[in-house]
Each structure stands twice: as structure tokens, then as C-alpha cells.
Amino acid sequence: MTLKDIYDLLSLGGSPDKWWPGDSAFEICVGAILAQATSWSNVEKSLSEMRRRNLLNPAAIRNAGLKELAFIVKSSLYHNQKARKLKEFAEFIFREYGGDFNLMSREDFKVLRKKLLGVWGVGPETADSILLYALGKPVFVVDAYTKRIFTRLGKLSGGEDYGQVRKIFEDSLPKEVLLYQHYHGLIVEHAKKYCLKNNPRCGECVLEKKCEKNLV
């Protein structure tokens, strides 16, 4: 069974359009940073408060006080670190692109990915989430759900690092942004509903007959 076959099976329940919500590309970037190590419901509260205070643009974040920003995003957990990460990201946009987010979005995505990984607090998953969902670049996002499902299916050994897993997907699938977005969204939804970390609901899983049940 190929990775495309798995995508087709997961799609039987419907493909999630605009799985990563956001009113603007920059808001999606902010959400990607705030989503680190917390639930999306917590992120939504922070984004709502930032929206209310007109803070969802690089200049506003750059000019906001660190303590003020930390208070505003406190629902996202690790709020002091995340406030600093947001300010570092905003400073990056000003340093590299004169504060012009649209100019950043036109950067070659391989060059931009390398630059993003140099920003304090931006790791591979966050960088790729920004590239794929905010900027529409063909980069596959890997997360813990991806590793869980595909190790259980026998497609991964469980010892691969982030880059190795990303390469497996990108080498096996057409380089299509919508496909990557939908596939990642399906993986997350499936892991949350069926392929749970503990007590997975295997009997209700569309992949059950193909699964090696390497329960990791």
C-alpha cells in the first residue's frame, strides 16, 4: 500500500478544506508559533485577543512590550517563550524584508526555509507549517501524529528524524500544495479520532486491515 493509497482511504471521510484556519497568511504564521506544545483551542483564545488588540501584523508585534504580549498569549501556555518567539519572528521580517510580509512570501521557499530555521524558536515543523499553510509552498509537514500512524502501519521504523520522514513523503507524492495540506490535515484528524496514543479505536479505522499495529 502506497502513501497515496493511504491518503485515498483517509479521504473517504472527507478531505478537510482550509484545515489550518486563519484570516490572513500572517495570522497563520502566528498560529503556527503559538501552536507549539498546546491545543488549538488554546491558540484560538490567544489569536482572538491579538485580533481584538490589532496585533496581527509584524509592526504591531515588534512594537508591543514583551510582558504585554506574554499576557495576551497566556492561554497558549509557555507564554513568555512564545511572546519572545513572536517578537523574534517579527524582527526577522523587518531585518530581512524591511517589514514587508508579502516580500517574504515571494522568497524562494528553500532559501526562506533555511532563514526561518535560523529564527529563535522556529523549528522544522513550525517552519514547514508556515511555508505550507501560510505561503502555499510545497513542503510536507511532519508531526508526532504522522510518526505514530505511519509507524503503526509499518511505513516507518520509528527511528527516523524529521527530515527523513519529510523526504519519504515528498519523494512518494506529487509535489502539490493542496495534496500536502489535505494529507497533513487528514493525518491529524485521524490521529485525534481513531489512532489515539493510548487505546486506539482500531475497529473503527479505515486503515485497520492494512495496519501492522506496531502500537507505539
Radius of gyration: 18 Å
CATH topology of the largest domain: Endonuclease III, domain 1
What's the level 1 CATH class of the largest domain?
Answer: Mainly Alpha
The secondary structure category is mainly alpha
By CATH, the superfamily of the largest domain comes out as Hypothetical protein, domain 2
**Overall body shape:** globular
Q: What's the number of structural domains?
A: 2
Q: Profile the largest sheet.
A: none
Terminal-residue CA separation? 20 Å
Mean pLDDT: 95
Order of helices and strands: HHHHHHHHHHHH
Strand % is: under 5%
CATH architecture of the largest domain: Orthogonal Bundle
The low-pLDDT segments are none
Instruction: Please report the total strand number as a whole number.
Output: 0
Residue share in helix: 55-70%
Helical stretch tally? 12
How would you summarize what this structure contains?
With 216 residues, this protein is mainly α. The chain is built from twelve helices and no strands.
Structure in words:
By secondary structure, the protein is mainly alpha-helical. It folds into two domains: about 5-15 and about 140-210, Orthogonal Bundle (Endonuclease Iii, domain 2); about 25-135, Hypothetical protein, domain 2 (Endonuclease III, domain 1), CATH 1.10.340.30. The chain contains twelve helices and no strands. It has helices spanning about 5-10, 25-35, 40-50, 60-65, 65-70, 80-95, 100-105, 110-115, 125-135, 145-150, 160-170, 175-195. Helix 2 runs antiparallel to helix 9 (about 125-135) and helix 10 (about 145-150) crosses helix 12 (about 175-195). The longest helix has 19 residues, at about 80-95. The model has no long low-confidence stretch (mean pLDDT about 95).
